[in-house]
Amino acid sequence: MKGRNLKVMTFLMSVIIGLLVVGNININNDTKYVQLSTKEYQQAYAERNQLLSTISKLKHSNDEIKNKINNYTYGGKQDEKILEDMKQEIDYNKMSIGFAAVKGPGVKILLSDGVDTLTEKPKDDTLLYVKTLHDNDMMKLINELKLAGAQAIAINGQRVLPNSEILCGWAFLNINGVKTPGPFTVDAIGDKDVLCSVLERNDSYVKTLRNRDISVSIHKEGELHINGYSGDESFNNLK
């Protein structure tokens, strides 16, 4: 009886030891501990930081793409408003510098020399010079119009730009490279009452021209049409 109990006890102990051995093997297989050197640890730490940085950049890029999609989806009307504002600004700038046709109230000035033909010219050359309209006379008149608030000016249909030249060429004036003969018509858009008042002052340049026997007539106009400059619009030396 005792021998039989001893066998049973031995069997149970064997089973228990076997289970412990198997459990210990599984634990060792499931948990692995690796010891890293200092260099390996630093390399692993750098790789970790690089991965975190890449993830952050991808997240930022994803947010930007989402914003673009939202703008494309919901920003159509806003984009149309921006484009319309830009177009209006371009049109205004073209009018201001003289590249677009304009209309508005102003004054029309008619100018002609004191003598119209060579047969009627004075015998004195000095008197002939005094009675003739010159390029500096036209420039002074244009400057006076600008000071009076003229917003657009044309001479015989040639739009006066900020860089327009006005040069004498015998009986002609060269304006924007175009020869135009006298008599001359100057159209100026602005407040017609103010323009006329400035031009008719006793100390105006118009008064000086009249004193030299040059014919000057000024007419108020309810609406003038001035064409835009149609020549070369390139500005190669500007940046």
Radius of gyration: 47 Å
H/E series, N to C? HHHEHHEEEEEEHHE
- CATH structural architecture of the domain at 102-226: 2-Layer Sandwich
Percent range of helical residues: 40-55%
Give the CA-CA distance, first to last residue. Answer: 116 Å
Overall geometry: elongated
Mean pLDDT over all positions: 79
CATH topology of the domain at 102-226: Alpha-Beta Plaits
What does the model show?
This protein has 239 residues and is of the alpha+beta class. It has a domain at 102-226: Alpha-Beta Plaits. The chain has seven helices and eight strands. Strands 3-2-7-1-8 form a five-stranded antiparallel sheet. The protein has a three-stranded antiparallel sheet with strand order 4-5-6, with helices on one face. The longest helix is centred in the N-terminal third of the chain and has 37 residues, at 38-74. 14% of the residues are buried. Residues 25-31 have low confidence and may be disordered. This is DUF881 domain-containing protein.
How is the topology of this model organized?
Elements: H1 2-30, H2 38-74, H3 76-97, E1 102-112, H4 125-130, H5 135-147, E2 152-155, E3 158-159, E4 166-169, E5 172-175, E6 178-181, E7 184-189, H6 192-199, H7 205-211, E8 215-226
Antiparallel strand pairs: 1-7, 1-8, 2-3, 2-7, 4-5, 5-6
